[in-house]
Write a structure and sequence with these properties.
single chain; 303 residues; alpha+beta; 2 domains; twelve-stranded mixed beta sheet; 9 helices; 30% helix; globular
Amino acid sequence: MQELIGRGERIERAAWRDLYRRAPTGVRRRLGLRAVERAGVTLLSASRVDHLLLNRAIGLGTSTVARRDAVAGAVEHFERRNIGRFWIHMGSGLRHSELPGLLREHGITPYPRSWMKFVRPAAPVEDVPCKLEIRAARRDDAERVGEILAPAFGLPDQAGTLLAAGMGHERWNYFVAEDERAVVAAAATFAMGDDGYLAFAGTLPEARRQGCQRALMAARLEHAQRQGCRRVFTETGMPVEGEPGSSYRNMLRAGFDELHVRDNFAPEGTRWQSHPSSDVIAKSTVSPKPSRPSLTAVARSGS
């Protein structure tokens, strides 16, 4: 089990690092993108986009021991870049470790929603009915893919170029759903050795409830097997009252097994926030930051 958890973390980290590095130079500057490794933790940051998905730490306590200096270093990374809202991911197996306490010393507390990490063999699923054509994305689909994926995650439009940055590159494969007029849904997968990773997907509101995402999931699983992957990982938010949880259900229907719960920690008071305007790049410096102990003082007291 721990080996699978580790594999799932490694491929997710590798996929997002690769995506940040493949983003065009102008986009990296415009969004303030940076992906670094520090003390065995992947630190993803977008200093000019106040959005949790693009500002997070992956691997703390999973790929490395959760020492005090590692925690301090992760928090310091975001504070130095004036990022007031970010996630630090933590596996549920660490709930009774010292890690939650170390995070609280920096004002980092449990976020209201955890994620479920999933795994399944890289094998085809049963035929999934879908009214639309499912095909591999082409280079000339890149702009449209970005236009679909960015709003699906509440990101400003320019972040779509980041999410589409893997197109045409080794390890990345994108698939789209197309009606008689245009592409209306998109999804991406990343491969690394024996492992595959369903990275992200999105559907335009007017094209939902036509089986797009289940069909795109099936296409990616079949492709992962053809690439030589033995297993495929993915994740989504845990079901919460008042939200449909369709992604979670689709993963179970596709034969994914629940691997482990990932708890998310964030600065106290952090909530999900979308940026629907195509003209807005939200700077984290305008977000109110909760007061918390001085990083220097906490780090010297002894992550």
